[in-house]
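Handout, section B. The chain below has 197 residues.
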Amino acid sequence: MIASVEGTVGAIAADSLVIEVHGIGYRVMTSPAVISSAEPGGRLKLHTYHLVREDQQALFGFRTTEELGFFGLLLTVTGVGPKVALAIVGSRPTADLQLAILQQDQAVLTAIPGIGRKLAERVIFELKEKVAAAGAIAGPSALAGTAGEGEVVAALQALGYSLAEARTASRIAMAETGVGSTLEDRVKAALRSLATS
């Protein structure tokens, strides 16, 4: 499995880049934002998802591990393939998308080309449950209706954020939401703080 690619940008296409690494050119499908910032001959590192199927192999590249983690989470949704997941991840910052899912804001998803109302509903339904499950695994207090910092950190890590990012955002969320708030309220507050940072 190829976890990341770092090298020289050899070619730029409408939907991909060729990254040359020690004489081998890797075609990496990526978002328009990454493509527009790439320069031929420039150095670039992308975290990659290596898709292997009977009839194809492909690399999908992301600037951050958070984007990569969210891409993997999107692929678990029924009816979401790699191209649709890439379009979602590339449309906005990851924290904005995760917050929209937790707030059940379909308008954010339906604004993305190729995402209709039914698919947006499915993404929200399936991923909201996964975020809640990630929090519940962290400890029994999440099941009791209140969430401590550990549960919020675990939920954010399940969404692909680093431990340091999750701890910082969790502290901000704990201060903002107060005692007795639910895991969902605290995760939403944490994602808002990540979206603005």
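Note. The longest helix spans residues 117-138. Compare this with the example in section A.
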